[in-house]
Amino acid sequence: MSNQIHDKISKKMSKTDIGKHFGISSQAVGKWFIKGKVPAERVSSLCALLNWEITPHELRPDIYPNPTDGLPCGNKCMSNESLAVNNDIHS
């Protein structure tokens, strides 16, 4: 996880609030950021908690290699439309 993603998460929600959501301590959440990896079993739930403004791919590109991997259909469809628009602009 990059510093940019860490900052993006921190602006949306505190480690304490994330920890409360998962029933763990803020220190445990802090370890995710220190290690640079959210546990695989927490990725989807964390993305949903953050309203999908951070994607599974951004958190764990090692297990979600494509930008739309792990997204619910509504978000995946919106993301694909955005990618298509960007491709048209740059063609």
UniProtKB/TrEMBL annotation:
Record Pfam families: YdaS_toxin (PF15943)
Cited SUPFAM superfamilies: lambda repressor-like DNA-binding domains
One term of GO molecular function: DNA binding
Gene3D superfamilies on file: lambda repressor-like DNA-binding domains
Identification of the protein by name: Antirepressor protein Cro
Organism of this sequence: Escherichia coli
